[in-house]
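# step 3/5: fold
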Amino acid sequence: MSTTSLPTPDHAAELRSAMLAAGFTADGLLDLLGAPAYAALARSETVPALRATRGGGDGPLATLVRLFLLQQPVPYVHAATAMPVEAALADGWLRREGDEVHATVDVRPYGGPDGEDWFIVSDLGCAVGGAGGIGSREEGVVLGVGGASTTLAGITVRTPVGSALDVGTGSGIQALHATRHATRVTATDVNPRALGFTRLTLALSGAPEAELLTGSLFEPVGEETFDLIVSNPPFVISPGARLTYRDGGMGGDDLCRTLVQEAGARLNPGGYAQFLGNWQHVEGEDWHDRLRSWVPRGCDAWIVQRDVQDVTQYAELWLRDAGDHRADPDAYAQRYEDWLDEFEARKTKSVGFGWITLRRTDAAEPSIVVEEWPHTVEQPLGEAVLAHFARQDYLREHDDAALLEARFVLVEEVVQEQVGSPGAEDPEHVVLRQNRGMRRATKVDTVGAGFAGVCDGSLSAGRILDAIAQLMQEDPVVLRDRTPEAIRLLVEQGFLEPVASPGP
């Protein structure tokens, strides 16, 4: 594990003020670098950004970009115009070699959801979009912002809460988001170095301090309970626990399973737990059933599989993540063999990736939805998560007879598409499609399309079906019997919203 000492946050407020004054922000980077160079950084390609800042001379913004984001040495005199350089040296943010100074940590500007100017601090070369990108094989390295961490931040429910817990905090991005809406934030990590980076991230972002505890999973918090739990855990299914930031150290997908199963007991009533995870697709098992078995008692669950990779794709992804493909070819081949041996021993055919959300409930029959949705969604999705569970509550409380008495309205952004051969009199099928949130699409029959199209909240579902039956010359009793299931699906997936019945 890395033993390099970390900076102290003693003068973080002064450093933050200097960075903001220089325009060292997400927007400032885009203005300085231009869109192509800025986009290249997200691919861990630094040459365009180096070229863009080379002409910046001793400008404070160019100096800060080259120093903290591109990790290039800069002249001491240039650094002195961009920041309180002696304080940065004393606190350990910089080190001096002759007439030049070097950054000791990677600092990346990060825009908060409401326009906040934040900074994520991580190990050198380990911010996605930083110098060199990911590819470290050092055991205790702490990463910066990546696609997984921003995905989790986007799907997290952001209602005000009393307490929030970030399990496996890393560089602290989830804890940073939580400080906006939680009175008290606790962050844990098995790697004490990660907690040091979280402290720096919070301080440099001007955020409140969090309680920082060392340990694995829920062990550091004992029996304490929370209103919100989030985790982007080390979910990679690998042979051994070589890299702390990604390898869970348990066999197969046991770390993710354990995290989910133990979360229920740590949630306050109505509280949410939200995780990213990997899970095995095992020969002879249905992956839906596998994940349902993880859900703790007393919790509703919404599990969305976003991607699936066969075992060779998966092994190659994470071998490259660690830079093993740049090592000795024989060593690379042996590591590859080790991964495939591990998967074969566990009868793993492929690996799924996705989101797991739990909600503590007192319902007699919790709702557990396990689905696959690999298509584009609209982030942030926190409001969509809340709406999903609200719809589950509604459907749990309304049987088929109650659904027929209820009134619904078609959600505004839903559009109807007719699919069929050109010139055909009738479409082969009709598709309802959402343009917001999960951006779902679902096939409906003629009755379903007609029903959804006239749902404006003025008539009950039963009266609409009676009118459709008359138009189609069908038996209204039969239509009422067979349609509630379709209504239930349209409500569950967010195409129809129930409306309050008008008063007497």
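# step 4/5: annotate
The chain has 20 helices and 19 strands.
# step 5/5: archive (pending)
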